[in-house]
Task: inverse folding
């Protein structure tokens, strides 16, 4: 009788650990992302950002509303693992520089900012197109 209940008990412990793991994973994933919205229109970047914090999951949405191809490039992605999605193409890495965005398309960059500062972004195709993302250290880190 005892011998039969032991594997069951082990199974229960395993299931508990598994559920705890899944719960923790969902909790971490449920942490809100801080969002920067960038619209490209008439060869200009128009950025809307909330106050950004260091070491928090950050997402930059870039929408190209022009009829020509643009590029969104920034040093903000340097030395931090970045996931880029542009036109259905995914890029990952620590050396992401930016992405091209076709007319009426959008790109999404997901990463964590490691250092505070002013981060320029620009379009490599049209060098006069520039913008800035500001991250002041809030003292909460
Ligand atoms: Cu451009």
Result:
């Amino acid at each position: 009788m005892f011998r039969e209940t032991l594997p069951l008990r082990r199974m229960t412990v395993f299931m508990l650990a598994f559920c705890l793991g899944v719960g923790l994973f969902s909790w971490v994933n449920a942490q809100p992302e801080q969002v920067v919205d960038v619209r490209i229109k008439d060869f200009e970047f128009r950025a809307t950002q909330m106050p950004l914090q260091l070491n928090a999951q950050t997402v930059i949405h870039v929408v190209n509303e022009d009829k020509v191809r643009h590029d969104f490039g920034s040093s903000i992605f340097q030395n931090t693992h970045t996931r880029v999605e542009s036109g259905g193409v995914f890029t990952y890495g620590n050396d992401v520089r930016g992405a091209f965005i076709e007319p009426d398309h959008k790109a999404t960059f997901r990463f964590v900012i490691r250092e505070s500062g002013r981060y320029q972004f620009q379009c490599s195709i049209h060098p006069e197109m520039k913008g800035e993302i500001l991250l002041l250290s809030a003292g909460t880190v």
